Amino acid sequence: MSRGWWTVGRLRGAPIRVHWTLPLGALMWSGFRFEPAFWLGFATLILIHELGHALLVLRYRLGLREIAVHGAGGYCAHERAGSRYEAAVVAWGGVLAQLVLFAAVQACYALFGPPGSYQLAVFLGVFGYTNLWLAAINLIPIEPLDGAKAWPLIGMLAARLRNRARTRSATTRRRNVQDELRALERLDTGNETPNQKTDRIVRELIQRTTQPKDR
Fold it and tell me: Is 133 domain-assigned?
């Protein structure tokens, strides 16, 4: 133990550490009841949240340094901040991992029914409403919660979609002009000189590309 931390594992060389305050957080969320299964589920949920961050840190090669879990939540430390977009995606990683866990447990309930064991039911129950409450709290857009960095991702994605739409529109216009030019060049020019042909093509092109299209 180092300053109240225990190293319980490693992910790609980065230590996974647990602080002594974790049981206090679990006890508070259980309503100060003696519920060992709930406590274990709470610790598992926080760890999965931080692993969700860690997987995206590895995805963007930001240099995973440490995964820590404590009574008030946890954190995933990495060496490089990355771009604003990467930071926003990483911020969403924890909540997305929680939502995947929620969906998986609900699917198991639908397929196999509720568990027969009380302790297992309590353990899995943490991944239900407690899970959603923690996700909602974590998405509040204030520091140090993930919501402060996560929500700007929506604006960035919308901007990317607008840029792609503009790029597709510009590409379509260029292709239309190129098609018109090829069509005009194939027309019978008769005895036109090169200069006359060029002038006619320019006039025809302007007329065809500026006149309103029939709907």
Answer: yes
What would the DSSP string read from start to end of 110-124? HHH-S-SSHHHHHHH
For residue 144, cis peptide bond before it (omega within 30 degrees of 0):
yes
Characterise 172 by phi-psi region: left (phi > 0), alpha (psi -120 to 50), beta (else).
Answer: alpha
175 in the same domain as 131? no
Q: Do both 88 and 115 map to the same domain?
A: yes
Can you give the pTM of this predicted structure? 0.79
Same-domain check for residues 50 and 113: yes
Whether 18 and 122 map to the same domain: the answer is: yes
What's the mean pLDDT in 107-113? 95
User: CA-based Rg of the chain, rounded to a whole angstrom?
Assistant: 29
* Residue 154 belongs to a domain: no
Structural domains counted in the chain: 2
Cα–Cα distances (Å) from 64 to 11, 15, 47, 71, 116, in that order, read 9, 9, 15, 22, 40
Average of per-residue pLDDT across 2-31: 94
Q: What is the mean pLDDT of residues 189-196?
A: 66
Which residues span the domain enclosing 100? 5-149
Q: Once rounded to an integer, what is the mean pLDDT over residues 179-188? A: 64
- Per the DSSP assignment, residues forming a β-bridge with 2 are 5
- 215: confidence class by pLDDT, cuts 50, 70, 90: very low
Closest CA to 99 of 142, 45, 153: 45
